[in-house]
Amino acid sequence: MNVDSVTLGVFVGLFVVFVLLGFLASRFRRGDLSSLNEWGLGGRRFGALLVWFLLGADLFTAYTFIAVPSGYLAKGSLYWFAVPYVGTSFGVALLTMPRLWTVSRNRGYVTASDFIKERMNSRSLAVAVALTGIVAELPYIALQIVGLEAVLTVLLLGLNLAASAKEITEIALIIAFVVLAAYTITSGLRGAVLTGCLRMY
After folding, report:
1. 110-136 pLDDT, tens digit each
2. Where are the alpha helices (DSSP H) in the chain?
3. Model's pTM, two decimal places?
4. Collapsing DSSP states into helix, strand and coil, what is residue 201?
């Protein structure tokens, strides 16, 4: 399989645009990114339209286009769980999140653990909620990186480089991880919002 120059140019061009947006996002609606409220929530100043784009980009990811379809092809109908799961979780969120958002904004909560700690008056329960969130998020993050790795691997294999498939896969994974980690660390949620808006657009 060969990758022609147009395909390569489009990929590289879009990749550069997304990486630049990810890093430049730290200047979008400026705030003190050393504050967890600014880094993790964008200072709560994005508004409905940007949050809509962010949620859309959250759905249309490597999980949606690579992980679920490949799982469905490999294991069968077990992976059909993703369709009712998304519909159900968004229904529950529409019922509960507006109130949680209002309470969190008024009380200054940044994470679910902040909410639990004050409402339940239990530090240990708050720590358990935080750890559960971290553990539950790791497979999803891994899926995103693996999805990006798959795209980069196919592209690099198509270039017919003088390297083995394993070496190409390792290079692709390193590129994927470094880029995602770097602009997430420097821009926080702002990076996800701007790149998400471009993806949805």
Report:
1. 999 999 999 999 999 999 999 999 998
2. 5-24, 36-41, 47-59, 62, 68-75, 82-107, 112-120, 123-158, 165-187, 189-200
3. 0.73
4. coil
